[in-house]
Amino acid sequence: MARNQVDWYRWLSGASLVLLVADLALNSIFQVFSHNTLLTLLIYIIQDVCLVFSLIILFLALFSTTLSQAGLIGELLQKFQWCILVAITYLGLSIGLHSWSLEQQWQKPELYIWTHGMVSFFIIQRVVGGLHYYLYKRTILQLSDKRFYSQLPDGSYK
Question: Which PANTHER family does the entry link to (predicted)?
């Protein structure tokens, strides 16, 4: 295996895990700063940017494999469809929850914003988040397998 491929695997896995840990940490600490809407907005923006970057890294990893270079993108998408769907769903649920909670805090700052609908949405977002963490990490570890990056035959037969 070439040195640049090892560096690529290391960078891919490291960046992906850093983004997952950042998302998990921001999910954990947002409630501490919920009294300050500006800090909450900043935390939400950083979290959503981390999620978008994690999707970009996932697609970079998918499209740098030998299968995608051979034109078998459908095979890759079929193999990793659950990770892609859950990642996009989690991003949508996170943006929705962040928008809704900030809207409630800004419109009625003196009222308790955690209605039954908000709590239900929060629970769904957290469950999908746990599924996202599992599938994303599993997919990144699968994509770091050297079989996805083996050399294509050059077409010259002897």
Answer: TRANSMEMBRANE PROTEIN 138
